[in-house]
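Here is my example:
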Amino acid sequence: MTRQQVKLKAKEDIRGRVFACFIPFLILGGIQLLIGYLLGENTYAIVPILVNIAMFPLSVGIAAIFLQVVRQKNSDIKMGKVFDFYKKTNRLGQIFLAYIVSSLYVIGGLILFIIPGIILAMRYSMLTFVLADYDDISWRDALYKCKQITDGRKGEIFIYMLSFFGWGILVAITLGILSIYVLPYYQATFANLYTIYNPTINVIDQEFLP
């Protein structure tokens, strides 16, 4: 599929339920704002880092929702799914480790040389989808799966991200209002891209294939 076809499918996937697809991001943003308010400005530098780690399962939950959106047309969007991975206590440790280790790799790459850091960021850009898609996957296997999925495709992933640059400007101009559409569109695009890249799970609608 071409980039235009992938993004067209993403638009079709969220058509008629854009706001419903935006609510998971609203939940995430609301929790972030609440925690930020409760912590205040006078807090240790390590605290925001720990908060980001603690909230990562929410991002995995959002990824799970959008995998359902792009794979099951017109399926009901269950907002409670955002919190699903907190309920899977046996998996939380692996999810946290996957996030911490991948973040350390990316930060280390950026500190040493900027370009290796960007390459590593592209390698682990599909991490939330991998963690959402595979039950009981270990953090090591999740990172390896990301490497496998993005092998030879990091440049393409980067171009996909750049293709939303104009949308980002429009979001800023509208003081964030347009994010109601852009965030679901962006997430659906990458959920579709992940499904195409994944060598074992591919359920993209035939009508969108070239």
